[in-house]
């Protein structure tokens, strides 16, 4: 298995800070905006973004975790049942600007499922998507991110691995991994 480093910890910090500055430009102090991290891996990025935004804006910003398991179009097609993650949205998103956050945008199917799952909490005024890694040329649905940390040319035989310190890794890093062909 070959791996290539896409972002190391210092560059990742710079990227997250840049994304937060872009959000502040468009959302100000987040008075009418909320953040939803997509379970399972988007919540780590959402927490980092949330912490940085609250520090920069000196404002309390609602943060929730959204599970899309039962809204996915491939839910019933799996051989083994999918395990759901916790949805934690303790606020109404009715007429709010929602920033969906995920670590990697691949086919777009998770984001489509998130749009369906989100409606249970109200009808947002606007929805935007922030992703750390945009895998180019892999979209199956017409979904694009509004805020992108890094766009990466990938093949279907590759995958993006995001390692977070909060998951037990030594540092935050993002890798492009070539799967071994059998």
TrEMBL record:
Keywords: Glycosyltransferase, Transferase. Residues 6-163 form the Phosphoribosyltransferase domain. One of its GO terms (molecular function) is uracil phosphoribosyltransferase activity. Its EC number is 2.4.2.9. This is Bifunctional pyr operon transcriptional regulator/uracil phosphoribosyltransferase PyrR. It comes from Fulvivirga sedimenti. The gene is pyrR.
